Amino acid sequence: MTNLHRRSLIKALGASALLSALPTGVLGAKSLRPLYIDGLSFLPDSLDDLAASGLSAYLCDISAIEEVKQEDGTLNYKRTYDACIKSIAEAGKRVSENPKQLLQGLSAKDIQSARESGRTAVFFQIQGADCVEERLSQVDEFYQKGLRVLQLTHHYGNSFAGGALDSDERGGLNLPLSPKGYALVDKLNDSGILIDLSHSSPQTALDTLAASRMPVVQSHGAARAIVNHARCSPDQVIRAIADSGGVFGTFMMSFWLTTNSTPTVEHYLAQLKHVAKVGGIDAVAIANDYPLRGQENLLKLNNDNAEGVKEYLDWWHSLRAKKVLGFDNEPMHVVIPELNHIERMSRIHDALKGAGFSAADTDKIMGGNWQRVLGAVLG
Hints:
By secondary structure, the chain is an alpha/beta fold. The chain is built from 15 helices and 13 strands.
């Protein structure tokens, strides 16, 4: 069976599974809270944030990083084996010690269990495959500890994959998936771990999508057609993710959402509409990339973007010096103030209702598409 036919079958089975998993309220018996699933956030300091967010589930980054100074003087942040094997154990312990609020997501069935019990299912994710660079058998160790989503790289490449911000003296590089990367894709498919292309180079993304036997996602990103930046994805990648049966999560980092000087909810909706136009409604999803409450420093500044953006400038200028695509434009903001909030999901839900999306399409965007993909890959 070809990858294309296999993916068509997966999409059909995923849709069937989604229908069978619909809450009794949808089928006419009792109502539950809306299905909200977020593509990336973190375990909160206060567990009260879980209920306040309205999330039934989210991809939860449990990475621990080691700061590494690169040869050119810029900083990279490696998710090493030692750091992440410790952090995933600590995250698992916190989840197990708080069963009234948290449920560790191991399969898509846990999303419905969380909804019915008023909890939040967290699907452990690591941002970068550096944690398994020593040997692929480490994938099994992380799976046993609850890892269900693995990002191939973070900003810069590794021995598996090219990174979005890789560069040399000529500017940007577009490195492919390496032979070792192809082996990792096979291993993740066999293990039932969802592959995440966030921070990958476009060529690595396309290579991975061609090689994978299962749907592939970009948990958090934005469209390059709107903001011409290395961290944003070309339409070819968005379309290929959709063709795999995966989803593209649009995140909250506003300098990658719009070049307008004042970011608004309309700019966020424009990103969602673009993904829908390129990949179809089944590919559209929500992501965060900040804590559940929002970008913390901006919250302290009452969402003063002019002041808050200053914390990013040293890093931004270091990439400008390397001539990486998009860093020649000075960032003017960090967040969309209305969405830098614990209730962002309900605010996006309300905005979608008035933006020309049908009720069924809105339900897919707010969580149904994530539920389908998690069911197809995790079971």
